[in-house]
Design a protein that fits this description.
Blueprint lengths: L4 E3 L22 H7 L5 H11 L3 E16 L17 E4 L3 H9 L3 E4 L5 H7 L4 E6 H8 L5 E3 L5 E9 H5 L3 H36 L2 E3 L3 H14 L1 H8 L1 H10 L1
Parallel strand pairs: 3-4, 3-5, 6-8
Antiparallel strand pairs: 1-7, 2-5, 2-6, 2-7
Length: about 250
């Protein structure tokens, strides 16, 4: 109760299951996003249950865009064939599930703090990075990347959460205003970031960055591959019941 509300990444320090929002290919586009990351899905219900267990209420998710790989050096052949062993060293965040995904896609990985990432790409310590979408790659890294692969592995989302006692202490009509407002705002945010990412892809190309976009058939094949072969291995972090429920959503 020190603060009432937050829009923030929730690390799995005390409960690794909260990182389930980073399961790859849970959704592959914004139509699916609107269904899975809204009230009524297994994912949303389960995530809210986990927050309720520690006195917090979930109000929605703010998307930061679908994540791809930005690279300074990249062999562009067979990028969507995950059976190929690649030579590139890709920086990943400190989440085991993200590391597993990038390695499953055939890349070598290293964990570098975000604050050191720009200089690591600049000096060649890493060939590329995973952890941001098109807009972030254009805004923050366009000077040090030459390629962007629009994998859409997952959507980088930020849960909006509120102290449950604070919320329940409000009059019921005020509570409804809070719920309704954040539901609308989160859907608006999804529409805004979708448009921003589409523009960022164009801006990168205009800047001279090679943008590589898979076909819909390639996207579908990647999603099926990861859900079939990688998802069972993620059960060690999230539990078989959660992975089974997410498969229903997918």
């Amino acid at each position: 109760g020190t603060i009432d509300m937050a829009c923030t990444t929730i690390p799995g320090t005390y409960d690794s299951r909260v990182e389930m929002c980073y399961v790859p290919f849970l959704v592959t586009n914004y139509d699916e996003y609107g269904k899975v990351y809204s009230e009524g899905s297994f994912f949303y219900q389960k995530y809210n249950e986990m927050q309720n267990d520690v006195g917090i209420e979930l109000l929605g998710f703010v998307p930061a865009g679908f994540i791809g790989i930005g690279a300074k050096s990249l062999d562009t052949s067979n990028l969507f064939d995950f059976s190929v062993n690649r030579k590139e060293l890709i920086r990943v965040p400190g989440l085991e599930s993200m590391k597993m995904l990038v390695e499953y896609a055939g890349f070598n990985t290293t964990t570098i703090p975000y604050a050191d990432l720009y200089s690591a790409l600049q000096t060649g310590i890493a060939d590329g990075w995973y952890g941001g979408g098109a807009l972030l790659n254009y805004d923050a890294f366009r000077d040090v990347i030459k390629y962007y692969v629009d994998y859409n592995f997952l959507n980088d989302v930020y849960p909006v959460i509120m102290n449950k006692d604070t919320l329940s202490g409000l009059p019921e009509d005020y509570q409804k205003i809070v719920y309704d407002t954040f539901e609308e705002a989160c859907l608006d945010a999804a529409a805004n970031i979708e448009a921003s990412d589409a523009q960022a892809l164009k801006d990168m190309e205009a800047y001279g960055i090679t943008v590589i976009i898979p076909t819909q058939e390639e996207r579908d094949a990647m999603a099926k591959d990861v859900r079939t072969n990688l998802w069972p291995k993620l059960s060690q972090f999230y539990g078989e019941d959660i992975m089974s429920g997410l498969l229903e959503d997918a």
